[in-house]
Design brief:
7-stranded mixed beta sheet, single chain, about 290 residues, 13 strands, alpha+beta
């Protein structure tokens, strides 16, 4: 692997290569792909497709277009609710864990700032701990809404329909602190010693797999922790029944915790344990006119 370089895609040939890269992850299902003509329209009318290259080889990309928030700042005119919708990120398997995803997202943050936009938003499967660690711990995004069957009734068999909606306030002090590595990486025990409470007491089942608690308790502690499996994709292959139990488990808990006035503000990855950190919504993560 040579030094990775980054630039935005612009030409028709580059968009064809972008479609080929998407197929490596999403397969040949046309309904799951952003086609080349649409990518050209995105970059031609205000969006962008930042990409990573190993030499001349396209190894990663991120798709973003400009939209308007329908849920945050809804009393403002549309021009004051502009955001960047981060639609898709793909990195070749051999190039993952090389900070490429982080760099592509930071390019998107630069794009938003250059255009006077405060908010970048996207969604991801909340049971994917690696994605949660990148989005929340490394980038400083916040989880403020949970959507069951976000794509309809799971129209694509290869993906789950549930999504955590991520808001990334590009100039927020929390975002800057996470990006610059200034947020202390507290251990789970340190959280527990400082008034945090685990909502779901997950346990190991007879197959040594992490199983969701039969019951959960949403306390009024200032910090709440929600545990998920560290490798959910692997669990889906090993025990689909247990994976479905986890899906239903968090589908119940996430909306309930958010309805109680909490947002996701951090993520713990400690050995084989991975947990969301919820803190009380103090109103600081709100859309404001630039």
């Amino acid at each position: 692997m040579s030094q990775i370089s980054y630039r935005e895609l612009k030409t028709a040939d580059e968009m064809d290569a972008a479609v080929t890269l998407q197929k490596i992850y999403w397969g040949e299902d046309l309904g799951a792909l952003v086609p080349a003509h649409m990518l050209l329209s995105i970059v031609g009318y205000g969006g962008h497709v930042p990409a990573a290259f190993d030499g001349d080889r396209l190894v990663g990309l991120l798709i973003g277009f400009i939209g308007a928030s329908q849920t945050v700042g809804s009393d403002l005119p549309l021009k004051d609710r502009l955001l960047v919708m981060s639609k898709r990120m793909v990195v070749l398997p051999d190039y993952r864990s090389h900070n490429i995803g982080t760099q592509l997202k930071l390019m998107q943050r630069d794009f938003a700032i250059a255009n006077g936009i405060q908010l970048v938003t996207w969604t991801f499967d909340p049971l994917l701990a690696r994605n949660a660690y990148l989005n929340i711990y490394k980038l400083g995004a916040t989880g403020q809404r949970y959507e069951a069957d976000y794509f309809g009734a799971s129209q694509y068999a290869m993906i789950s329909g549930d999504r955590l909606v991520i808001n990334w306030w590009v100039n927020h002090q929390n975002t800057i602190a996470h990006i610059q590595g200034e947020v202390p990486k507290y251990t789970l025990q340190q959280y527990l010693d400082n008034s945090a409470a685990i909502i779901n007491a997950a346990v190991m089942d007879d197959k040594c797999c992490l199983a969701p608690a039969e019951q959960h308790q949403i306390s009024d502690n200032p910090i709440l922790l929600l545990e998920i499996p560290a490798e959910f994709a692997q669990l889906q292959q090993q025990d689909i029944s247990l994976a479905k139990r986890w899906r239903e488990h968090i589908r119940q808990i996430f909306p309930a915790v958010m309805a109680a006035g909490y947002v996701v503000t951090n993520f713990i990855r400690e050995g084989e344990r991975t947990l969301y950190v919820f803190t009380r919504d103090d109103g600081s993560f709100r859309f404001m006119k630039a």
